[in-house]
Design brief:
about 130 residues, alpha/beta, OB fold (Dihydrolipoamide Acetyltransferase, E2P), five-stranded mixed β-barrel, 3 helices, about 30% helix, globular, disordered N terminus
């Protein structure tokens, strides 16, 4: 009987850890609005976010520019649109998870300047 109690406790502990790890991974994903709000603290850090691709420009300066929105943020100030650079791409309408480095005030010249951009990102299309 004692062995069964120990085994049950171990199983519950294991399940608890699995649940905790899944929650921790979910907590690591940021909304687009949260990225804009926390951008100063996130500079240089790798983040992840999910959303829908609304615009794609492929092959610009050796990278693809993917614009992602998740329904958060404000269109008036642009905090609803996350610009991501990547070697990977996606199609407009795809639901994606991105992971990359937060960069602030990136100026590519010719009028292409971004107060917040996610660079060197991986783009994973959700199926």
């Amino acid at each position: 009987m004692r062995f069964l109690s120990v085994a049950l406790a171990a199983l519950i502990g294991t399940l608890g850890l699995v649940s905790f790890n899944a929650s921790a991974a979910d907590a690591a994903a940021k909304t687009v609005a949260a990225l804009y709000k926390e951008k100063a603290a996130l500079t240089g850090k790798t983040i992840s976010a999910t959303g829908k691709v609304v615009k794609v420009n492929n092959g610009i300066m050796g990278r693809n520019f993917v614009h992602v929105q998740d329904g958060t943020g404000d269109a008036k100030d642009g905090s609803n649109n996350l610009v991501v650079t990547s070697k990977q791409t996606a199609a407009v309408g795809d639901k994606v998870t991105i992971s990359g480095v937060v960069v602030l005030n990136r100026d590519f010249g010719s009028g292409y300047s971004y107060p917040l951009i996610i660079e060197e990102a991986t783009v994973t299309v959700k199926k």
